[in-house]
Amino acid sequence: MKIISWNVNGVRSVQSKGFAEMLALLDADCILLQETKAQTDQIDKALDGIDSYRIYSNCAERKGYSGVTILSRKEPLQIISNIGIVEHDREGRVIVAEFEHFFLLNVYVPNSGEALARLDYRQTWDREFLAYCRQLQSKKPLIVCGDFNVAHREIDIARPKPNYNKSAGYTQVEIDGFSRFLDAGLVDTFRHFHPDTVAYSWWSFRAGARARNVGWRIDYVLTSKALVDKVKQAFILPEITGSDHCPVGIEIDL
Fold first, then answer.
1. Which pLDDT does position 202 carry in this prediction?
2. Fewer CB within 10 Å: C terminus or N terminus of the chain?
3. Which of 70, 167, 195, 181 is nearest to 127 (CA)?
């Protein structure tokens, strides 16, 4: 099973950049999109003509903001939207597909914002989202994919020193928040297979950052420890363009 996660920074925007052709090239069984920035009818229209996938979306109340979508070739047992906390759920950040042997969760974690204005909210989110992941994991193994909006280690960010505790996504609060997911029994699959590899999944649109590879690794596929031995490979695909993020993913025997 091939699972791809991609923050598309607007599904209607990426639609005009060869999106259908890129999905065909990726040839994944499940494709998890974040930051779709659209309502369900707009997403369905943008993805019209992309065959062989069932489409499930969770959208923010605020139009043109946030949002997550799962495309799956196989029909899930059920789809669960949100985590049951209104403060978080209004932003459309979580959607879960349940399959026979595992849950597949798609998440777009809140950004702490300019001047770290939402850092306190981010702490609350991290704590309550982790509790939700623990609930799911108590029932069956879990795969969590998405934009976590944090570079976990120095190797995951091109310029750690000038960004540390100054920039959203690289504060100790956020780093510690992500570490707790690993402490809870989830494995960062890319680091599991590539412990010393420098690779990024997001680049600022400013100053030619992508061309110079001045990036951050903030997109992850985490799996329960029970699934790690079934993961054949974990990868990042910087050659796939169309967004300020690139796709990340795994191949897993399930």
1. 98
2. C
3. 181
The rounded Cα 47 to chain-centroid distance in angstroms is 19
Q: In what order do the strands lie in the sheet with 30-34?
A: 54-58, 68-72, 30-34, 2-7, 248-252, 231-236
Residue 170, classed as helix, strand or coil, is coil
Per the DSSP assignment, residues forming a β-bridge with 171 are: none
Upper half-sphere CA count for residue 202 (Cβ side, 13 Å) = 21
How far is Cα of residue 169 from the mean position of the Cα atoms in its chain? 14
Tokens 């540390």 correspond to: 164
State the pLDDT at residue 211.
Answer: 96
Q: Are strands 219-224 and 142-147 parallel, antiparallel or unpaired?
A: antiparallel
**211: CB partners within 8 A, 6+ apart:** none
Cβ neighbours around 114 below 10 Å, total:
9
* Best CA proximity match to 38, nearest among 70, 13, 21, 6: 13
pLDDT at res. 49: 83
* CA 68, chain centre distance (Å): 9
The secondary structure element, H or E, covering residue 121 is helix 119-137
- The DSSP 8-state label assigned to residue 86 in this structure reads H
What does the DSSP 8-state code read for residue 157?
B
Pair type for strands 2-7 and 30-34:
parallel
For position 51, what pLDDT does the model report?
84
- What is the rounded CA–CA span in Å between residue 158 and residue 52? 38
The answer to whether 110 touches 118, Cβ cutoff 8 Å, is yes
Domains of the chain (ranges, CATH numbers):
2-252 (3.60.10.10)
Q: What is the pLDDT of residue 87?
A: 95
Check residue 83 and give its pLDDT: 97
Using 50 as the pLDDT threshold, list the residues of the chain that sit under it. none
The region, left, alpha or beta by phi > 0 then psi within -120 to 50, assigned to residue 140 is beta
